[in-house]
């Protein structure tokens, strides 16, 4: 049996490499960069797992996937069992296997990684999840509990809301998801580009939720179309997972010139509205020289998108150094391979325009690193008088997002913190009985997997709350 | 999916559509809008809610066909469905008792104006309405507006209906008449018209409200594509507006940003069949 391999034999196997589209080819399309493992590669990689007793990887995963268990089944070639274990713990495994920062979560604490590379947990999760998507007929049939008769409304169909929906439906509650946009997924749909997360994956994951009875209503803007109070009257509990979709503006001159985008607008046009295609009516300005301001994953997504839209120069403008960048190492690496330029220790001072109101340049201030700030990162300090102009025709602002006040402005009793995020206890309960919240609306802009972790945890709390209501 | 219940032609390329949207009908207030996507793969466009019937669960939209999407929209026959209608969005009109109010509508702006103007008398206002257009066929809703207006003045650029000239000519006469000088003006129409009205009322200190029509995508405040500058501050028209103090709006910026995708719009128009394109070009002139 595979799982009777000796530790020494497991340690002797090299970590698998993810097959990728070549940089030259992929900058000409929006197809996925990572091509996924073959079954052979996946089983080989699974054998690297030491199946250790301490299982730190499980604690390192915000949704607590039983990682050694699904990997053990995979190593045996028992894909239906691997899928059963994975799907029981994670509502969106094909998404997580693609966008989670495993290097700072499950893989960071992998025992196998103490000597050599950690097990490629993310790649294996993706492999098993993709296999499950492709072979629905071979999956173990899911048995749902009898309906409890309780109704739960979920506001927002992003990662937190989708996870919540899956968890509650599997506990027998009647779930309705309300989404403001015309399609589901939140940031999975409008934010993360096709070349990192194909939209058909989101479609299939959402379909799986509908198959277990989750109702989805798009075009419902909670706070406008219906209020939180109305939802509270109609449902036994409400979960708010409407994210942090309000762009932080740069507040510099020239920000309203033609050719200046928030990353949210730029990515929404390209991802949700498919503006990269020639046969859709939603337009986008395809700059020849594009500057993207920021150093997070959103900045990497935007700058790599601009390259695929045909930019000759795509430039990251970031006020600290690469070490401080919040973006995933893999994304930075991919960006560099694609010819993205990194202009570090530079901060935007003004966006310059021509006589017709179009962007023609970005005035930048050179910075140096000073003392560490509250976040522990060294603070960027301007070098007096050292400025320069970058010759660009599109500027994308990816410096961050805040809580969108659209819902909270119409729910005066809901307690917020000073940044406008909803205050909750450690289990997601808000100041209003029966109302729970999680994801970016509570945390501020964070990651997909943290939002999913919040959704999973709050689902437990909601389930207990509903039982108390009997 | 949102069923089209009626679809009437009011003027060349201007349609009035009634759509089944019970949730929106129930809560919408004058001044608010919806975002519509006609079909799968289509773009999202903002449209003012002209009217609503709570009992029937319907809303009324006024649409001017100016490009690919609006052409497809007005071409949707009764009984068919629009893929997506989201709303109501934006802030409702803040209706107060001003006293004498002059409501000014230019082109399709007359339809945007209609729900606001109709709500004014109930708040104790006396309404005088001015409708302007290029020529007689473009004057819409005169009858409907006259129901609650003390007077409806019509101006056309070519003099084919009402007085020859611009809405500002009619407004100036009212301002000059102490018996009729308004305490507030609400002006909705093309940017040059709203700007001209705001410039006319500014020296008199007459409160002037305009409804802005920047480019929008989501309409819920998540992208800032619709940003406008009012009183030196950047505001998102979809959540902070669409109505603002006309004396504080940066109209240059608005018209500049409205032209951002002109090339793409022309390219989309070129893809239309000749007959449809001719229809648009003729009206746009």
Largest sheet of chain B: 7 strands, antiparallel
Total number of strands of chain A: 15
Low-confidence stretches of chain A: none
Question: From the 3D coordinates, which CATH architecture of the largest domain in chain B would you assign?
Answer: 3-Layer(aba) Sandwich
- Largest beta sheet of chain B: what is the strand line-up? 6-1-2-5-4-3-7
Radius of gyration of chain A: 23 Å
CATH structural fold name of the largest domain in chain B: Rossmann fold
Approximate helicity band of chain A: 25-40%
Distance between the termini of chain A: 49 Å
How many distinct folded domains of chain B?
A: 2
Class by SSE composition of chain B: alpha/beta
Quickly give the CATH architecture of the largest domain in chain A: 3-Layer(bba) Sandwich
Largest sheet, spatial ordering of strands of chain A: 3-2-1-4-15
What is the beta-strand fraction of chain B? 25-35%
How many extended strands of chain B? 16
The class by helix and strand makeup of chain A works out as alpha/beta
Number of helices of chain B: 10
Average pLDDT confidence of chain B is 93
Q: Could you state the oligomeric state of the chains shown?
A: heterodimer
Overall number of domains of chain A: 3
Order of helices and strands of chain B: EEHEEEHEEEHEHEEHEHEEEHEHHH
């Amino acid at each position: 049996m595979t799982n009777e391999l000796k530790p020494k034999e497991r340690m002797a196997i090299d970590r698998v490499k993810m097959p990728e589209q070549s940089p030259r080819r992929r900058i000409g399309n929006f197809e996925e960069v990572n091509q996924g493992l073959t079954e052979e590669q996946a089983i080989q990689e699974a054998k690297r797992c030491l199946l250790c007793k301490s299982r730190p990887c499980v604690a390192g995963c915000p949704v607590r996937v039983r990682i050694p268990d699904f990997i053990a089944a995979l190593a045996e070639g028992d894909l239906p069992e691997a899928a059963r274990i994975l799907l029981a713990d994670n509502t969106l495994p094909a998404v997580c296997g693609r966008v989670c920062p495993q290097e700072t979560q499950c893989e960071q604490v992998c025992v196998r990684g103490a000597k050599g590379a950690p097990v490629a947990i993310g790649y294996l999760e993706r492999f098993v999840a993709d296999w499950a998507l492709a072979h629905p007929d071979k999956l173990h049939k899911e048995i749902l509990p009898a309906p409890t008769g309780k109704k739960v409304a979920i506001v927002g169909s992003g990662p937190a809301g989708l996870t919540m929906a899956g968890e509650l439906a599997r506990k027998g509650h009647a779930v309705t998801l309300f989404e403001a946009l015309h399609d589901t997924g939140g940031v999975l749909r409008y934010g993360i580009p096709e070349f990192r997360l194909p939209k058909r994956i989101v479609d299939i994951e959402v379909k799986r939720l509908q198959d277990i009875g989750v109702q989805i209503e798009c075009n419902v803007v909670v706070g406008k179309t219906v209020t939180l109070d109305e939802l509270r009257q109609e449902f036994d509990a409400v979960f708010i997972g409407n994210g942090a979709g309000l762009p932080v503006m740069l507040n510099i001159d020239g920000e309203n010139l033609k050719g200046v985008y928030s990353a949210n607008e730029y990515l929404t046009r390209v991802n949700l509205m498919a503006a990269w295609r020639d046969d859709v009516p939603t337009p986008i300005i395809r700059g020849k020289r594009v500057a993207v301001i920021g150093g997070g994953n959103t900045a990497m997504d935007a700058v790599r998108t601009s390259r695929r839209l045909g930019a000759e120069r795509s430039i990251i403008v970031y006020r600290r150094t690469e070490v401080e960048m919040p973006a995933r190492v893999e994304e930075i690496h991919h960006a560099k391979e694609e010819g993205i330029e990194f202009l570090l220790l530079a901060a935007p001072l003004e966006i310059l325009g021509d006589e017709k109101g179009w962007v023609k340049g970005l005035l930048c201030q050179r910075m140096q690193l000073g003392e560490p700030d509250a976040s522990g990162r060294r603070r960027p300090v301007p070098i007096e008088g050292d400025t320069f102009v970058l010759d660009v025709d599109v500027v994308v602002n990816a410096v961050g997002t805040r809580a969108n006040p659209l819902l909270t402005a119409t729910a005066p009793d809901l307690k917020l913190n000073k940044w406008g995020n909803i205050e909750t206890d450690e289990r997601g309960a808000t100041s209003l009985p029966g109302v729970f919240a999680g994801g970016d609306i509570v945390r501020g802009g964070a990651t997909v997997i943290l939002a999913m972790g919040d959704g999973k945890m709050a689902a437990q709390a909601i389930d207990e709350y509903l039982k108390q209501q009997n | 999916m949102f069923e089209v219940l009626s679809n009437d032609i009011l003027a060349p390329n201007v349609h009035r559509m009634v759509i089944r949207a019970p949730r929106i009908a129930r809560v919408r207030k004058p001044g608010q809008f919806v975002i519509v996507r006609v079909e799968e793969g289509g773009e999202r466009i903002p449209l003012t809610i002209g009217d609503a019937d709570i009992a029937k669960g319907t809303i009324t939209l006024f649409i001017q066909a100016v490009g690919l999407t609006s052409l497809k929209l007005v071409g949707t026959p009764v009984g068919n469905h629009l893929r997506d209608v989201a709303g109501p969005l934006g802030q409702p009109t803040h209706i107060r008792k001003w006293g004498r109010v002059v409501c000014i509508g230019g082109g399709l702006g007359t339809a945007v104006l209609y729900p606001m103007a109709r709500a004014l008398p109930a708040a104790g206002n006396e309404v005088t309405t001015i409708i302007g257009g290029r020529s007689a066929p473009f004057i819409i809703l005169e009858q409907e507006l006259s129901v609650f207006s003390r007077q409806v003045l019509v101006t056309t650029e070519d003099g084919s209906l009402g007085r020859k000239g611009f809405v500002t000519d009619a407004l100036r006469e009212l301002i000059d008449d102490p018996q009729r000088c308004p305490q507030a003006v609400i002006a909705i129409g093309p940017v040059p018209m709203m700007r001209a009205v705001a410039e006319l009322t500014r020296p008199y200190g007459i409160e002037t409200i305009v409804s802005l029509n920047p480019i929008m995508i989501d309409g819920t405040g998540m992208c800032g594509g619709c940003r406008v500058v009012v009183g030196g501050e950047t505001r998102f028209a979809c959540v902070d507006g669409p109505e603002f103090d006309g004396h504080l709006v940066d109209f240059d910026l608005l018209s500049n940003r409205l032209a951002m995708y002109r090339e793409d719009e022309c390219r989309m128009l070129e893809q239309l069949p000749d007959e449809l394109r001719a229809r648009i070009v003729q009206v746009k002139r």
